[in-house]
Specification:
- The complex is a heterodimer of chains A (about 290) and B (about 425).
- Chain A is mostly helical and about 290 residues long.
- Chain A contains 11 helices and 2 strands; from the N terminus they run H-H-H-H-E-E-H-H-H-H-H-H-H.
- Chain A has a domain of about 190 residues.
- Chain A has a two-stranded antiparallel ribbon.
- In chain A, helix 3 packs antiparallel against helix 8 and helix 6 packs across helix 8.
- Chain A is globular.
- In chain B, helix 1 crosses helix 10, helix 2 packs across helix 10 and helix 8 packs parallel to helix 9.
- A 7-stranded mixed β-sheet of chain B has the order 7-6-8-9-10-13-14, with helices on both faces. A 5-stranded parallel β-sheet of chain B has the order 2-1-3-4-5, with helices on both faces.
- Chain B has 12 helices and 14 strands.
- Chain B has 2 domains: about 230 residues, Response regulator (Rossmann fold, 3-Layer(aba) Sandwich), CATH 3.40.50; about 160 residues, Response regulator (Rossmann fold), CATH 3.40.50.2300.
- The chains are: A mainly alpha (about 290), B alpha/beta (about 425).
- At the A-B interface, helix 1, strand 2, helix 9 and helix 10 of A face strand 7, helix 7, helix 8 and helix 9 of B.
Amino acid sequence: MELGPLPQLLVSGVLAGFVFALIAMGLTLIFGVMDVVNFAHGEFLMIAMYLTLGFSLVGLQPVLALPFVALALFLFGAFVYRIFVRRLLEGPPEASIFGTFGLLVLLQGLAQFFFTSDVRSVNNAWFTGAVRLGPIRIGEPELVAALGALVVAIVLYVFIEYTETGRGMRATSEDRIAATLMGIDVQRMNALAWGIGSACVGAAGALLMLTYQVYPRVGAEFALTAFVVVALGGFGSIQGAFVGAILVGLVEVLGGFYISPAVKLIPVYLLYLIVVLLRPQGLLGRR
Amino acid sequence: MKRLIAALGAALLLATAGPVASVQAADKEIVIGSILPLTGTFAQTGALLKAGQELARDLINGHVSYPVTMAGSDGIPSLGHAKIKLIFADSQGRPDQAATVAEQLITQDHVVAILGSYTSATTQTASLRAEQYKIPFLNPDSSNPQLTERGLHWFFRISPHDGTFTENMFQFMADLKKAKNWNPKRIALVHEDTLFGKGFGDVTEEIAKREGYTIATHVAYPANTSEVQSEVQKVKASNPDVIFIASYLSDSLLYMKTFKQQGVDIPIIAQDAGFVDPGFIAGLGKDANYMFTRDTYALNIKQRNLGVPLINELYKQRSGGKNLDGNVARDFTAVTVIADAINRAKSTQPEAIRAALAATNIDGKRTVMPWKGIKFNDHGQNTEGAGLILQIQDGQYQTVWPGFVASKPPIFPIPAWDKR
């Protein structure tokens, strides 16, 4: 049987999925812990990408900049929670929707003002070639980005599943009132969730700069996919986000090739609709 | 050297400033309307176009001779050296507003001709008003091919249009075939799915068919995409000899990176946009080399008009240091073309100016454009203009086609990715 480009498409799809996964995991973590959808998630990604660009201008390659960008985004996320989102939680449920949407507009506007709408990219000096596995070619930047995403995802998973703080976060996400009664500081957990969720997107931004470019509206290209991934995998489910992202990556690349690139997002949304209709809680969601 | 040119330019400007200041006092003035997007989305471009037109006006009204039609002629000689006066009207980039200000220019300011108006959509509406009032309308810079296919009597366009630009890509390929013993048959056509990309896709399909090429694959993809793996695999699987591509910057970078990743080293001829953006070479470094792209204008050409660098310096004083680009150069040229027509008409009567415009015959060497010249056909379209094909060589855009303005010969065949 002639496979043609199928093996290549499968590999490309999975690799694309890894970076989507990291973005979606941050989003789903925040939602899981406190039922707030951060509409400005894509803009957090944009900030992380500009930061990575800034580090590269002073000679730090994206892979080395990653921990710093993740830390900066952690602090930024926790800060945004402390001064802004915490207040939104006191209002009606719509407050957090409009509030984070307002944040999206604000951050995009600021980026436009300070960085202009120019498209910028990192002059990636370290990973430039391609790896060959038989008929399959993988670009080194894509490979490094995917492996980096995988490592960060595993670290996050271990943290949530096996540490005391992680258990506290899971408890908060399962039942806020019971968690409070058990002596868990919910405010602290919320701030942590914002911090860690933002750190994920920070890591994703640093890795993405290996293969992609930054401009003020870049968040929109990735945030929309992240929302689909989160709904597909199940709101609040870290594993679900991972599985969902790889599915989306595969469906997008295969659909693009075998149907038409013009409609490559249609199979993705179709898959999403089918899952939501048959299993409203998402593939691995509990509620 | 640069300083010398700037100082010289400043001195010349002072020389030309005198007559301009006295324009108000002069009893004879020829009033020409100019519609530009001075506010709104295109305000930045509009301001530069205005600066270009004002520079041309000042050179024509001045005494200092430059190697450009009508420059230094102290106004319009055949009308007692009457000075050119430009009245600028703001289209706000909106078609309805463009039509309104066109009417105002004609009925209130009594202009003898109108220049305008950058975007194809505003040119379309404004020129209809001019047609209605029987006033010549000279368009420097709108690229929609349909504009000169409307059967208008009073409409002229000096710029080549999108169809011509795409034809130029095929002509370049034909020349390359002859010179380099290359025999391309299959074209992979890749473009984004907005009006720009789609228009390019349609025209390319049409010309390819006429010229006997096969479209190996036609990939229309959603603009601003997050990955182009399936697109590139489609191109690869279709086994093309050449890739024609139209994308804005973000996508163009993504395509180049993915072509490299997948070892696609087929010659690429791009339709400007992202491929001529300053961010293209900045983002790709040496991976940008060997790309071909068409463009409307370049300063890096074999100048046949040695005055261009000096005019560029004069322009930079008015543009905040920006170089002449394709849009400004065409708007600058339009003012000289209308002045030339009025001078030959020896009259400010619209019909006389129209007849003189129709008989325009300017040598390309007397313009700042890389064209053979300016001559209108009976649709009002300049037949002597063409685009350029540039190739990125050693991190710089070089003009490689047409031959009479080429700064460097094309490097062809292009090396494989691992040998770059």
